[in-house]
Design a protein that fits this description.
By secondary structure, this protein is an all-alpha fold. It has 5 helices and no strands. The chain has a domain at 25-82: 434 Repressor (Amino-terminal Domain) (Orthogonal Bundle).
């Protein structure tokens, strides 16, 4: 029981830290540049391309965490590839 609680608390702490690091706004143009085009963004997020076309200048709040996570993964992969 204690071990399970430690893991749960550790996961919560990690999630809180990640949430605190998410920018308040993520420019849609930055996301499209990272993925190549809007269709690739849609595929990565699991939504339709039409939904991405409806985004304004910034990623909607409901998608910010997921997009931030994906951009972080892309950046890490690029760092590994360049070393």
């Amino acid at each position: 029981m204690i071990m399970g609680l430690r893991v749960l608390l550790s996961n919560c702490k990690h999630a809180i830290i990640l949430y605190m690091q998410i920018p308040k706004q993520i420019p849609t143009a930055k996301v499209i540049a990272a993925f190549g085009n809007k269709s690739k963004v849609a595929r990565a997020v699991g939504i339709t391309p039409h939904a991405v076309y409806q985004w304004g200048e910034y990623v909607p709040d409901s998608r910010r965490y997921h997009i931030h996570y994906l951009l972080t993964q892309i950046a890490q992969a690029e760092r590994v590839r360049n070393h």
